[in-house]
Design goal:
Order of helices and strands: EHEHEHEHEHEH
Radius of gyration: 15 Å
Strand order of the largest sheet: 3-2-1-4-5-6
Oligomer: single chain
Strand content: 15-25%
Largest sheet: 6 strands, parallel
Number of helices: 6
Structural class: alpha/beta
Length: about 160
Amino acid sequence: DDTRKKIMPSKVALFLDYENIPDVQLAENWINFAQSKGNLVVQNAYTRQWKNSPSDGSLLKRLGFCLISAILNVKNSVDCKCMYDCLGMVESKSSPDIFIIVTGDGDYAHLLNILKSHRKQTIIFARRGSESKKLKRIAHEFYFVDEVENYLVAA
């Protein structure tokens, strides 16, 4: 029946703040987790300069990440670039429905509030012991990076 609306899978974006979480050996698990939530349409990894981490950059690139260098000479340039890119996607017609951000940095709290105001689902992966309580409170879902395999079963 043509009158029935097709249920489309959610569009998912995965953002890795490599400055905060350089655990690239877990990247494949983050991808699998993201794919369990819907169609993974964006995979971005951010650091100051990828030339400083060539082997990690090569692995992430092989896994389908777009490597983004935030070479601005300002404090928190990586956070700023990642947040700017997220905000740039929110208004587009092809905007992701789910934003997964791998970071523990409380600087992302304002971004999460903006994403939520646009009815976007927010998921945070953070390192145990350095996670922001604010992010934990604001995000729709919050997980620890070292337990990502546990969440794959549940997802």
